[in-house]
Design brief:
alpha/beta, 11-stranded mixed sheet, 4-stranded parallel sheet, 18% strand
C-alpha cells in the first residue's frame, strides 16, 4: 500500500473523508500531535488502527468530534462536562464520560469499557476533516505503539508509511504533547496530564483533581507504563553528560538539543517529541535529560519522559 500525502484544503479533506467512509485510515494534525483516524462506527476500520500501530486491544481510543452537541450523542453529559467543554473546547482536553447505549460505535473504541473518551480538537485541518466526514473519528497518535508521538507529517510517514492510506499534512503541531484526559465518571480524576495544565482545570472546577493511581486499571489512552519511547534509552534528571550520551536540555544549560533555553514550558512541550525524533534519527543510544519543573505543562512533559524511560514492555 502506498500512503498518500494530502494537502490541507477542500480537495484533500474530501479525499480523506472518502477514505474514512471506505474503512481506511487517515493521519491528520491536531493542536497536540498527529492522530491516526478511522470511522469510529466501523469495526474493521477501528481494528485496522490497532493493526497498523501494533497497539494492545485493551487500550481505549479517543473519539474526535466537531461539536459539543455531537459529543452529547455518545456520552452521558453532565454539568461538569458542560463547564469544562465551555471553557476549554475546542482544545487539548479529553473528557471520559459514561457511554450512552445504542450509539453505534465499535466496542473496540472503548476496549469494552462503560466509558468513552471524547474531545473536540482545536486545529483547522482536524476541523476541516471532521466537517467533511460528518461523523465520529477514532484517533490515537499516528505512530507505532509505544514509540515517540508524531508532531509532523514526516514523523507519521517514518513510522506508518505503507500501513495507512493517507496523511493530511498540516505542518508542525503547536502544542506538541497529547491532550489532558479527565475522567468524569465519578469524582473528577486526572487520567493523563497533557496539553492543558491541571491547574487550569482545577481552577475551572473549583476543586482539586483526584489522581489516577499507578496500580489502577487502564481506563484511558496514554496510561501504559512504557510509552513514547525512542530507540535508545532515556536517563532522567541528568546533571551531567556521561560518556556515550547525548544531552537534551532545559533552561540555560549546554546540550545537544534544548527544549527551551529560556525555560519556557510551553516551548518545551512543543519541542519535546520533535527533539526526541531528531535524536532518535541520529542513532542516540542514551538520551540524558536535564531536570524539568513539575508544574504546568512540565507535568505532562515529565509524564511522557518517565514513560519513555520506563523498562520496555
Amino acid at each position: 500500500m502506498e500512503t498518500a500525502c494530502l494537502s490541507p484544503d477542500q480537495q484533500g479533506f474530501a479525499r480523506a473523508a472518502a477514505i474514512l467512509r471506505a474503512g481506511g485510515l487517515v493521519a491528520f494534525p491536531t493542536e497536540t500531535v498527529y492522530g491516526l483516524g478511522a470511522d469510529a462506527r466501523q469495526d474493521h476500520a477501528v481494528a485496522r488502527i490497532f493493526e497498523a500501530k501494533e497497539r494492545p486491544r485493551f487500550n481505549p481510543l479517543i473519539v474526535h468530534v466537531d461539536s459539543i452537541e455531537t459529543a452529547k450523542a455518545y456520552v452521558e453529559w453532565d454539568a461538569e462536562a458542560d463547564a469544562l467543554a465551555g471553557a476549554f473546547w475546542p482544545g487539548p482536553l479529553t473528557l471520559v464520560l459514561p457511554l450512552k447505549p445504542g450509539t453505534g460505535l465499535s466496542p473496540l473504541v472503548t476496549a469494552d469499557l462503560a466509558t468513552l473518551a471524547v474531545r473536540m480538537p482545536d486545529h483547522p485541518v482536524a476541523q476541516g476533516l471532521l466537517a467533511a466526514f460528518g461523523g465520529p473519528v477514532a484517533a490515537p497518535s499516528a505512530n507505532p505503539s509505544g514509540r515517540i508521538s508524531p508532531t509532523e507529517a514526516g514523523h507519521v510517514l517514518a513510522g506508518l508509511s505503507g500501513r495507512i492510506e493517507a496523511v493530511l499534512d498540516g505542518g508542525a503541531c503547536p502544542v506538541g504533547v497529547e491532550s489532558t484526559i479527565l475522567g468524569l465518571a465519578g469524582a473528577p480524576t486526572l487520567l493523563r496530564p497533557g496539553g492543558l495544565p491541571v491547574e487550569a482545570i482545577e481552577a475551572a472546577l473549583g476543586q482539586p483533581l483526584r489522581l489516577h493511581g499507578a496500580g489502577d486499571p487502564v481506563s484511558a489512552p496514554g496510561q501504559m507504563q512504557s510509552h513514547y519511547a525512542p530507540g535508545g534509552l532515556v536517563r532522567l534528571n541528568a546533571t551531567e553528560r556521561r560518556e556515550g550520551e547525548v544531552l537534551l536540555g532545559f533552561g540555560a544549560v549546554e546540550a545537544d538539543l534544548n527544549l527551551s533555553v529560556s525555560g519556557d514550558l510551553t516551548e518545551a512541550a512543543a519541542n519535546l517529541f520533535h527533539h526526541l525524533h531528531a535524536l532518535d534519527a541520529q542513532g542516540a543510544r542514551v538520551i540524558a535529560v536535564t531536570p524539568i519543573p513539575d508544574r504546568g505543562l512540565g507535568r505532562a512533559i515529565n509524564d511522557r519522559l518517565r514513560r519513555a524511560a520506563a523498562p520496555r514492555e
